[in-house]
Structures are given as C-alpha cells and as structure tokens.
# Entry
Amino acid sequence: MAAQKQSKVITKRRKFIEVNIPLIRSKIEIAANSPKDLEGRNAKIDLTRQLKGKSVEAVMKVVLENDKPVAHPIKVKLMPYFIRRMIRKRISYVEDSFLAKSQNSLLIVKPFLITRNKVSRSVRKTLRNKSKNWLEDYIKERTDDEIFNDVLSNRMQKPLSLYLKKTYPLSLCEIRILELVRPLKPEEVPKIEKKIHIEPIIEEKEEFIDQMKEIEDELVKKAENEIKQAQEKASKIEKDKSEENKDEKEEKKEEVEKEEIAQEKPKRGRKKKIENSEEKKEEEKIKPIKEKKTKEKTEKSEEKKEREKSE
# Structure
C-alpha cells in the first residue's frame, strides 16, 4: 500500500493590534490577524474611570481610516446601578424614548430626569415634552461625533437642566441611552434653521447661582428656625422638668418630715414606759412598808376590840 500523504495546516498567530479611539483620546488593543480583520467589529468599553465615577458603557465600531483601525461610538449607555444609586424617596423621575435625526444618522435618545421633590403628572408631562423638543433641536444641528462627545463631556445635559429648571428644578439630568440606528440618506438630512448656542445659556449660570443662593438662604433660615424651635422646646422641657423636680423635692421633704414625726412618737411612748417602770420600782419599794403599817393598824384595832370585850 502506498503511504498516505499528510497535509500540514498552517495557522497564523493572532496579534494585538492597537485601535485608536478619538472620542476618549486613548488606544485599546484587540486580538486579530491583521487590521482588515478588525473592520466592522464592535468593542465594549467601560468609561467610569475616564468620567470620574459616572458609570457609562460605550459600544465602539472599528473602521479603517488610512489603513489604520479607528473606533467610533455607536451606543452610549448609562448603567442601571448608577441610576438606582441616584433615586431617593419622595422624588419623581421622568423617562422618555424617541427618534431624532442628526446631520449623519438616525438616533435613539432616552433621557432620564429626576426632580428634587415629588411632582404631579402635569409637571412630569411638561418636563418630558420640553426635553424632547429641546433635544430634537439640539441634535439636528450636529454630527454624530459631536453629539457623543457632548454627552460624555456633559455639555448637552447642563444647558438642558438649566432650560428645564424654569418649569421645575432637577437633581439629575442625564441621557440614559444614545444609539445609532442607521445612516441618513441625503434627502433625509434635516435643514439647520436656528442653531442653539450654548454661550447665552452658559450666561444664565449667574442667574442660576443667584437662585441657588436664594434657595440656600431659605434653607439656612428654615434650619435656624428649626434650631430655635428645638431650643425653645428643650427649654420648656427643662422648665417642666425643674418644676417636676421641685414638686418631687417638696413631696420628699413632706415624706421625710412625716417619717421623722412617726419616728418621734414611739420615742415619747418609750419615755413614758421608762417613767412608768421607775414608778413601779418605787411603788414596789414602798409596798412592804405600807403593808407593815396596815398590819400594825389591824393588830392595834384587834387589840382594842379584845380589850373592850374583856371589860
């Protein structure tokens, strides 16, 4: 039999190829045979360190630019445990989900708002509608990279919170999910009518700071009033306690006096008993003398009677 020929399978080792991420200004390494193999691949990145504790997960898509792999964001998601940490008692939260067109593609936007206190349904509805209108106007004037960059650098959320503050102040204003759906056709690209400038909104920060000062002053006054009320209550309680203590002391004094009087009575009785015992002793001493005298008298009287009889 003829010897069978053995075919060798040649396998190439994978390499770690650097991928540039211009959004974060950093690089990551992905295992692949060549940069061409990386094209079209997705990579999940945790951005909590870059955003200083804000838990955000980004999904990047790798694209070749000048034969070099570059990752662009497709989706940005705020982690649910971060939202759970922000929610407190006696607050209201507002959620929404809608499609918005940018200059490049169609986006899914899901804002998430938390009010400072509990709010009625009508206020929540106005907040939802206003945020939707503002975000649609903001997104249609910018490209995808600008929008993702603004979301991660918090340049979109700050002016939105200042704008919504006129209806009701917010404790949290975030974009929970921002995701690319599909690229737009040239016919679908929205026309820019009026660009939203951030500068005039930033100038409103001074007004916001003044209002915050007013709120802080009101809170300080409330705290001072509460402290005064607490002090007055404490002083009243102390007065009541002092009066109660006085009454208790007086009652104790009366009880002590009664006890002393009760203790003095048996002493006087003892003295009488002692005096009676001394008198008894004296009487016992005198008794035999009296008895002798009585005997003598009786004897004399008997002698007289006998004499009279004899006579």
